[in-house]
Amino acid sequence: MTLSLFLASATQRLADAGIPAAEARTEARILVQHALGLTREQLILRSDSPVDGGQGALLEPLLIRRANREPLAYILGERGFYGLSFQVTPAVLIPRPETEHLLEAVLAFSPPPAALPPPAALPPPAALPPPARLGSPPPPASRRGAASPPSPPSQRGTSDQPEGGTEWCEVGGGKKRGALLDIGTGSGCIAVTLAKLLPEVQVWATDISEAALDVARENAVRHGVSVEFRRGDLLAPLPPELCFEVIVSNPPYIAPAEAPTLEPEVRDFEPHTALFDPSLGGDGLTLYRRLAAEAPARLVAGGLLAVEVGQGQAEAVAQLWREAGLAEVAITLDLAGIGRVVSGRKP
């Protein structure tokens, strides 16, 4: 069998398992490349080359796993996010493109001084923008979404000396400008990416799962960043005196009643603690209510609270933010026109 026929056979097996045709073609190609150690160009150039039994044996277990609807990211152990590659295991939610809108809401609030390239074109680590300070003026508008980013208050400048003592946080005997918290960090894709892009900012991250934190720590090491990871529920594991300039979260927001409607890749493989509202019979908003009640007290004046939300939840979460006393509440749309990020600032 030639390599092209081998690929066609793999594609058909995935399609027969219920994977949409276009997705089956792409994923079969990726699995063949992964199993045989080929680049895409090599796959094309060697399309007429014969495939032996040993090569077929390398691919077979991968095809079985994907035909059983195990997500491709878990099979490969990798997932791209904002131009970086992250380790993923079944202990963590697979990073999704929609979550990049949440990251960009933070970058709009505290942008790197240089223009940020699109995710697919992020420069290598040595060429990343110089350190940014939380509270720097945002660009005129976010590169994505429908809402203009909130502007930091005028009294919070970018000088090297803090004005009120709240902009410096002590970490390991040293000091960094500003503090940012990622609640429910999972793989660490948000926290690690922000630590990479904003190296002068101290990034903290919490999660209830030690297995997830192990993955997040590995990703921090992989990308050469320092993140303070803590295990616990929301803000509970953090020093009580510590306040933040940014709190960001992508909490579990799927109502348990919606489980039967989910694709098997999600329902049967991704961690339910990262997917579903933790309350029995919950409506998907339980953790947003808790964040609205708990997070503002841990923000400095002018600080940002930004969260990812599910389809149809944006207005309800925005109202929770308003009732919590947050100002400049904004909803950012994703590329499909769905409200995806809700943000607000502490007055």
Automatic annotation (TrEMBL):
Belongs to the protein N5-glutamine methyltransferase family. PrmC subfamily. Substrate binds at residues 250-253. Its EC number is 2.1.1.297. S-adenosyl-L-methionine binds at residues 184-188, 207, 250. Residues 176-256 form the Methyltransferase small domain. GO terms for molecular function: nucleic acid binding; peptide chain release factor N(5)-glutamine methyltransferase activity. Gene3D superfamilies: DNA helicase RuvA subunit, C-terminal domain, Vaccinia Virus protein VP39. Residues 118-171 are annotated as: Disordered. This is Release factor glutamine methyltransferase. It comes from Armatimonas rosea. PANTHER family: HEMK METHYLTRANSFERASE, MTRF1L RELEASE FACTOR GLUTAMINE METHYLTRANSFERASE. GO terms for biological process: methylation. It comes from the Bacteria. CDD domains: AdoMet_MTases. The gene is prmC. NCBIfam families: hemK_fam. It catalyses: L-glutaminyl-[peptide chain release factor] + S-adenosyl-L-methionine = N(5)-methyl-L-glutaminyl-[peptide chain release factor] + S-adenosyl-L-homocysteine + H(+). It is an enzyme of class 2 (transferase).
